[in-house]
């Protein structure tokens, strides 16, 4: 059984819950008091992850840190259809890797702005917001051109991949960091499509798709 | 200091929360913002707190003898938080007698920054109508969406709003719930920016859990929300109890931050209430009667 070291309000933890739910696999949660307790910097947690970051999973003794790395592992191991991380398709794997790194950039900007506003982290919030807008603009254009070619997802495939899961949470939570999304219509449509994937679950701050037509 | 600071005497004379004592290292200066002013504060290990308008000789992070600080603001430790005032506050803060009961778990679930006015956040706290839609499968679930008739009074003696006989079906009312139940609620608003909620305890039908929200107005449209829990739970670790409350608050946050206008309009014609908003109507009227102007859009006189 997979154990997820988890903080409810963390978008990086949420992306793992989201993929596991979509894959239909079960997990158990060990809550970590990230805020206000800073338990991710406690001795016991640093033994698990010396970087002092969430999330971490323990899959029958196999301990792995880093949200994007864990997405790769979970999809490779637990997706029988092999679509979330298609190991046989080098170009697609390259694209996925590119957008997983992009997701880290979203964490470094949009998530940082949210931590500043909500949990009082001492970050340069204006720089974080500007950085997030730059990334959102790039993603919005990418998705818009994709739509013109009939592509619904971030990577060149007719199905979502872990790149979509990796980018989704901190985009959805961006308003909590003072980053509105009204200028990114293609991102908004993509978020709506993602919310209609079977097995989609919410976290605090993310609402389900409205009752519009199913994608 | 280009922004106008608070000119509202009602708000200036209130006690305002600054931080949870449990999260403030003893004997070390910390800083926060209250009513657009930078405030320094500190606590010692023995339950004494001090607060002052931020100044250069007491920078954040420096060590301090709390009892010896001069030129301070009024300060008080209550319900696990340090409180101060920029005016002349009353001697006492509103009472929460249950806080003294030894078998309760007393925690700060979290202090969170929210991009909303304090009165809008209080109103949301009083609202039961959103439970099934915003706190789905926790504090409410369809089809149990009706807010049944309840009573609201403005208590003249205690100068507070009291909503009683509130009842709502909740799938998971607390960390010790074992299933859905009709839960009784009592709401108090004993302070323009603070509210105290009492709800049935799943473990003792004779007693009530107490959950309070103490809002620290950073400015007219931003708060630090301090969430106090004083609950009956002998099963769960602190972090599990905190997580439950943070999950709920995290669901409210985007709703609060998308309220428009951010300040609460006090003109009865500004927003159309429904029957379920009885406590909100009383709250707006009470703020008007007090002459509160900070964080609200006063009714045209």
Verbal overview:
With 215 residues, chain A is of the alpha+beta class. Chain A has two domains: 2-78, Glutaredoxin (3-Layer(aba) Sandwich); 90-195, Glutathione S-transferase Yfyf (Class Pi), Chain A, domain 2 (Up-down Bundle). Helix content of chain A is 50%, strand content 8%. The two termini of chain A are 32 Å apart. In chain A, 41% of the residues are buried. By secondary structure, chain B is α+β, with helices and mostly antiparallel strands. Chain B folds into two domains: 9-84, N-terminal domain of TfIIb; 97-297, Alpha-Beta Complex (Naphthalene 1,2-dioxygenase Alpha Subunit, Chain A, domain 1). In chain B, 17% of the residues lie in helices and 33% in strands. Chain B is built from five helices and 15 strands. The longest helix of chain B has 20 residues, at 238-257. The model of chain B has no long low-confidence stretch (mean pLDDT 94). The chains are: A alpha+beta (215), B alpha+beta (301).
Strand order of the largest sheet of chain A: 2-1-3-4
Query: What structural category do the secondary elements of chain A indicate?
Result: alpha+beta
Tell how many strands the DSSP assignment of chain A holds.
Answer: 4
Continuous helix count of chain B: 5
Radius of gyration of chain A: 17 Å
Residue share in helices of chain B?
Answer: 10-25%
Taken as a percent bin, the fraction of beta residues of chain B is 25-35%
CATH fold-level topology of the largest domain in chain B: Naphthalene 1,2-dioxygenase Alpha Subunit, Chain A, domain 1
Sheet/helix structural class of chain B = alpha+beta
CATH fold name of the largest domain in chain A:
Glutathione S-transferase Yfyf (Class Pi), Chain A, domain 2
Average pLDDT across residues of chain A?
A: 96
Number of domains of chain A: 2
Give me the strand/helix succession of chain B: HEEEEEEEHHEEEEEEHEHE
């Amino acid at each position: 059984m997979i154990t997820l070291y988890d903080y409810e309000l963390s978008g990086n933890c949420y992306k793992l819950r989201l993929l596991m739910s979509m894959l239909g696999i079960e997990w158990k949660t060990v809550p970590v008091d990230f805020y206000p307790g800073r338990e991710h910097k406690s001795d016991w947690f640093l033994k698990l992850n010396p970087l002092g970051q969430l999330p971490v999973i323990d899959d029958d003794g196999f301990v792995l840190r880093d949200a994007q790395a864990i997405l790769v592992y979970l999809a490779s191991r637990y997706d029988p259809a092999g679509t979330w991380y298609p190991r046989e398709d080098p170009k697609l794997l390259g694209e996925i890797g590119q957008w997983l790194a992009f997701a880290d950039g979203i964490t470094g900007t949009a998530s940082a702005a949210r931590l500043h506003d909500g949990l009082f982290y001492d970050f340069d919030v204006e720089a974080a917001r500007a950085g997030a807008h730059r990334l959102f603009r790039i993603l919005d254009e990418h998705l818009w051109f994709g739509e013109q070619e009939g592509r619904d997802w971030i990577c060149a495939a007719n199905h979502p991949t872990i790149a979509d899961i990796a980018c989704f949470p901190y985009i959805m939570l961006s308003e909590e960091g003072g980053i509105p999304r009204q200028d990114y219509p293609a991102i908004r449509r993509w978020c709506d499509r993602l919310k209609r994937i079977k097995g989609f679950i919410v976290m605090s701050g993310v609402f389900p798709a409205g009752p519009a037509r199913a994608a | 200091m280009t922004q106008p600071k608070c000119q509202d005497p009602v708000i200036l004379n209130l006690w305002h929360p600054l931080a949870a004592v449990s999260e403030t290292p003893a004997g070390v200066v910390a800083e926060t913002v209250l009513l657009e002013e930078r405030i320094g504060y500190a606590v010692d290990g023995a339950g004494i707190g001090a607060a002052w308008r931020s100044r250069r000789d007491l920078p954040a992070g420096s060590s301090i003898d709390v009892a010896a600080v001069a030129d301070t603001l009024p300060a008080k430790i209550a319900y696990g938080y340090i409180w101060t005032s920029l005016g002349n506050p009353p001697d006492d803060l509103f009472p929460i007698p249950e806080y003294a009961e030894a078998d309760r778990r007393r925690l700060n679930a979290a202090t969170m920054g929210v991009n909303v006015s304090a009165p809008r956040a209080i109103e949301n706290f009083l609202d039961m109508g959103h439970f099934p839609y915003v706190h789905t499968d926790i504090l409410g679930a369809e089809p149990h969406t009706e807010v049944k008739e309840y009573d609201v009074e403005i208590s003249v003696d205690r100068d507070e709003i009291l909503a009683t006989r509130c009842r709502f079906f909740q799938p998971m009312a607390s960390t010790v719930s074992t299933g859905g139940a009709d839960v009784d609620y009592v709401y108090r608003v004993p302070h323009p920016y603070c509210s105290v909620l009492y709800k049935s305890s799943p473990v003792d039908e004779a007693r009530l859990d107490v959950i309070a929200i103490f809002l620290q107005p950073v400015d007219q449209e931003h708060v630090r929300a301090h969430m106090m829990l004083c609950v009956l739970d002998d099963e769960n670790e602190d972090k599990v109890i905190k997580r439950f409350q943070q999950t709920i608050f995290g669901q409210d946050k985007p709703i609060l931050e998308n309220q428009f206008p951010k300040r609460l309009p006090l003109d009865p014609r500004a927003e159309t209430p429904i029957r379920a908003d009885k406590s909100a109507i009383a709250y707006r009227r009470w703020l008007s009667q007090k002459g509160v102007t900070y964080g609200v859009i006063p009714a045209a006189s």
